[in-house]
Write a structure and sequence with these properties.
This protein is α+β, with helices and mostly antiparallel strands. The protein folds into 2 domains: about 1-100; about 110-148, no CATH class. The chain has 5 helices and 7 strands. It has helices at about 10-20, 60-75, 85-95, 105, 140-145, and strands at about 1-5, 25-30, 35-45, 80, 115-120, 125-130, 135-140. α1 crosses α2. The chain is globular and about 40 Å long.
Length: about 150
Amino acid sequence: MRIHTDHLERSQFYMAAKLAHVDFTRFNSHGSRKRDHAFDVILTGNSPRRQNGGPDKAATWDQWGHFLGTLFDLEPTMQADRSYMDAAHFHYVTGDRFRNFNLSNDHVKGHKWSYSGQSATGCYSVSECYCGAIWRHLNVSWEHMTSL
């Protein structure tokens, strides 16, 4: 995942990873046309699934969410790939799951998502897990939504 930031430093990423109980498979610095700089990140966690193209276990959705939620708390205007445009968008897409998230109590290693409908405009589809987690999926490109 490419994370574009104006202010975050490597040490803050390491702190967020420690809180989310993950390690880095890849953590590279890059330039960014959107922000001051960017980091390319792949996390290793305790998912029952393997990473794409690697022998390590992937980070779970909750571990990624805890990691990104911590970073968004530090810089609400950062952008994570095209998935999360800023902190408000991240919390909307994840149904506010990662506000005050407690990894030891709330962590689910394998969410079982089921379709539960779409937004009124049809821009998002909504999936829910038996644990109560919500995940909104964009049905159209972000560029299309911002041009409306």
